[in-house]
Amino acid sequence: MGRLKPVTHKELIRKLRRFGFEGPYSGGKQANIKREEWENSE
Q1: How far apart are CA 22 and CA 5, in angstroms?
Q2: What is the DSSP letter of 2?
Q3: 12 Rama sector, left if φ>0, alpha if ψ -120 to 50, beta otherwise
Q4: Cα 8 → chain centroid
Q5: Could you write out the DSSP letters of every residue in 4-41?
Q6: Per residue in 12-42, is it b (16+ CB within 10 Å) or e — as a string?
Q7: What's the whole-model pTM score?
Q8: Residue 6 half-sphere exposure, CB side, CA atoms within 13 Å?
Q9: What is the rounded end-to-end Cα distance, in angstroms, of the chain?
Q10: Residue 1, SS3?
Q11: Do the beta carbons of residue 23 and residue 14 sit within 8 Å?
């Protein structure tokens, strides 16, 4: 497993969007990030 390194907020959002997350949406004290629902086939 690779080591973790610091990333900027902008880079974090870009990478999360690449994995299917939407946002960030403002609301309350923090911004929220949403991921599309997927069906679990267990």
Answers
A1: 23
A2: P
A3: alpha
A4: 13
A5: P----HHHHHHHHHHTTEEEEE--TTS-EEEE------
A6: ebeeeeeeeeeebeeeeeeeeeeeeeeeeee
A7: 0.54
A8: 1
A9: 27
A10: coil
A11: no
Here the tokens at position 28 are 């309350």
Q: What is the pLDDT of residues 4-42, one digit of tens each?
A: 899 998 898 888 888 887 777 667 776 766 676 655 555
Given the structure tokens 């974090």, which residue do they identify? 12
Q: Locate tokens 């497993």: which residue? A: 1
- Residues in the chain, total: 42
**Encoded amino acid at 28, one letter:** G
> Tokens standing for 36?
């599309």
